[in-house]
């Protein structure tokens, strides 16, 4: 009888401990996944100002003292219509968003040519 009681106690202890160890494993894997995935910003770093320089060869536009790279994925609009880097001239007001790449360069994701808050006609 004592052997059966000891066996039941051992089985009961194993059943109680199993869910605890599973929860600890799940929590550890969830924490590792959360730490590994960095939180991405939705739009990036905003910018706004007058264009100081446009370099079609280097595919860059300079606003103030910061230079933004224009990539094939950069969306450029002028007067709410699609535009290109060639449509941007020095002295114009632009705004948009940029993201830093692994090398620390600012890649423009969007560029809007024209004054901020300009009304569509």
Short key terms for the protein model shown above:
OB fold (Dihydrolipoamide Acetyltransferase, E2P), 121 residues, alpha+beta, 5-stranded mixed β-barrel, single chain, 2 domains, 1 helix, 38% strand
Q: Record the strand order, biggest sheet.
A: 1-2-3-6-5
Estimate the strand proportion.
35-45%
The end-to-end distance, rounded to whole angstroms, is 92 Å
Main sheet properties? 5 strands, mixed, barrel
Please provide the count of β strands: 6
Give the count of helical stretches: 1
Helicity level, as a percent range? 25-40%
- Low-pLDDT runs of 5+ residues are none
CATH domain fold name of the largest domain:
OB fold (Dihydrolipoamide Acetyltransferase, E2P)
Helix/strand/pairing category = alpha+beta
Q: What is the element string, with H for helices and E for strands? A: HEEEEEE
Fourth-tier CATH superfamily name of the largest domain? Copper binding periplasmic protein CusF
Brief digest:
The model has no long low-confidence stretch (mean pLDDT 79). This protein has one helix at residues 2-36; strands at residues 45-55, 60-63, 66-78, 81-82, 93-100, 106-113.
